[in-house]
Specification:
By secondary structure, the protein is α+β, with helices and mostly antiparallel strands. The protein has one domain (39-161): Lipocalin. It has one helix spanning 9-33, and strands at residues 44-47, 53-60, 63-71, 75-76, 81-82, 102-109, 114-122, 127-137, 140-146, 153-161.
C-alpha cells in the first residue's frame, strides 16, 4: 500500500501568494478600466496636445460643446492682429476671431465614458470631422476625429487644465 504524504507547505504558500497577486491585479485593472463617468465630468478647461490652445467644454441643452478660450499665440504674426478663422472654407466666416471659436459641437454622452455623434473643427486647416471624445481618466481626454469610419482618422489627447 502506497504511503500518503502531506501536501508541501511551501507549495501551498506559493499558490496562495500567486492567487493573491492575481486578485490584486484584477482589482486594479477593473478599477482603472471599468471606471464610469458622469456626463458632466467632461466639462472644464482642456489643454490640447500641441499645448497651444485651451478649450472649454460646456453643456447646452443636453449636448456638449467646446470653444477656444486661450491661445499661446493669440496674435497672427503676419498681420499683427488677433488670429482669425482664415482657413474656413466659407469666405464669410474667415474673419471670425479664433479666440472664442466653437470647435466641438453636439456631443451626446453614452452613459459610460464616451461623448459621441459630435463634430470637431480644426481651425488650422478649416476642416470639420466627425468625432468622439473618450475619457481616459479624470484628467485626460482621447479626441478622435474622422471622416466616415472612426478607424480612418486621427487621435489626439487633451489634458485637464485651468485658465
Amino acid at each position: 500500500m502506497p504511503v500518503q504524504t502531506q501536501p508541501d507547505d511551501e507549495m501551498n504558500k506559493n499558490v496562495i501568494a500567486l492567487m493573491t497577486l492575481v486578485l490584486i491585479g484584477w482589482a486594479f485593472v477593473e478599477n482603472s478600466y471599468g471606471q464610469t463617468f458622469k456626463s458632466t465630468d467632461v466639462k472644464g478647461i482642456w489643454l490640447n496636445q500641441d499645448q497651444d490652445a485651451k478649450i472649454e467644454i460646456f453643456e447646452n441643452g443636453g449636448k456638449y460643446f467646446g470653444k477656444i478660450v486661450w491661445l499661446q499665440t493669440p496674435m497672427d504674426p503676419e498681420t499683427n492682429k488677433p488670429k482669425v478663422d482664415k482657413h474656413n472654407p466659407n469666405p464669410a466666416l474667415r474673419n471670425r476671431p479664433t479666440l472664442g471659436l466653437e470647435i466641438l459641437k453636439d456631443f451626446i454622452f453614452d452613459g459610460n465614458d464616451e461623448w459621441k455623434d459630435g463634430t470637431i473643427y480644426d481651425p488650422k486647416s478649416g476642416k470639420t470631422y466627425s468625432c468622439y471624445i473618450r475619457m481616459e481618466n479624470n484628467n485626460k481626454l482621447k479626441i478622435r476625429g474622422f471622416i466616415g469610419l472612426s478607424m480612418l482618422g486621427r487621435t489626439t489627447y487633451w489634458t485637464r487644465s485651468s485658465l
